[in-house]
Amino acid sequence: MELAIIKISGKSLEDFTTGETGINLIKGLQKKYSSVILIHGGGKIISEWSKRLGIQPNFYEGQRITCKESMEITAAVQGGLINSKLTAYLHTYRIKAIGLNGIDMDSFEAEYINDKLGFVGNPVAVSDSKWIKDLLGNNIVPVFSSICRDRNGNLMNVNADLFAGAIAKLLKADSVYFLSDTEGVKLKGEFQNSLSIDDLHTGLTSGEITDGMIPKINTCINLLTNGISNIWIGNELKHHEYNLKGTWIGNN
Questions:
Q1: What is the pLDDT of residue 241?
Q2: Rounded distance, CA 182 to CA 159, Å?
């Protein structure tokens, strides 16, 4: 089974679901890979809903600070509204899909990162992945939100980039595509066509890589370390001959 993971940022969801843009991307990848999984964030929309409800969004090292109230908003918006809209979009174009999250089938447990972030954790796989492989074997596209739980059953906010990395490692994905609102990874004042793991470490150490790009790049480093070396970051949705504009990381 050749598997591609597509992680869609909250900021690029609108573009992805405009007309047949996202569908063409998926169908293009399905010609190269036997299976595709979608993982989505929801940061922009979660922030909008939080402000409507009187909660000011705050971030630390690129991750959302999540109290109990903002966790409920995150779960409702990302796990409910966005996941349902994205799954409905796929079905509209006759692509079989199922909306899921990291809690389903007891797949992942989130380990708290630090007290500053609140209900935010790193995802750790705690069950067998056969059920996901069964879905893929039936030509179903799983659409995951990154909502997870802690060991006591509390809902946890997991950064979607980190969740994409965890899914990719669990299923030994061949390629991971991070569809974002940025052209790629910017180092030395320019967007780079390709980067090595050493370049990523340098960018983090120098402070050139900041904010929401931090968890994305940490995920890339983790993937490379675990043998997944075909990674892409960018915002170009048009897919022709599998040559996406953006930054390629690893062997591609």
A1: 44
A2: 17
Cβ distance 204 to 165 under 8 Å? no
How many beta carbons lie within 10 A of that of residue 146, not counting itself?
28
151 in a domain, yes or no?
yes
pLDDT beneath 50, residues of the chain: 240-241
Predicted pLDDT at 238: 61
Based on the structure, what is the number of domains in the chain? 1
Is 85 among the domain residues?
yes
The domain that contains 156 carries what CATH number? 3.40.1160.10
CB of 126 closer than 8 Å to CB of 56? no
Q: Is residue 248 part of a domain?
A: no
44: domain range?
Answer: 3-182
Kindly list the distances between the CA atom of residue 134 and the CA atoms of 1, 98, 140, 141, 157, in Å, as whole numbers in the listed order. Answer: 11, 12, 9, 11, 27
CA distance 76 to 214: 25
Provide DSSP, 76-120: IIIIIIIHHHHHHHHHHTT--EEEEETTGGG-EEEEE--TTTBSB
pTM here?
0.92
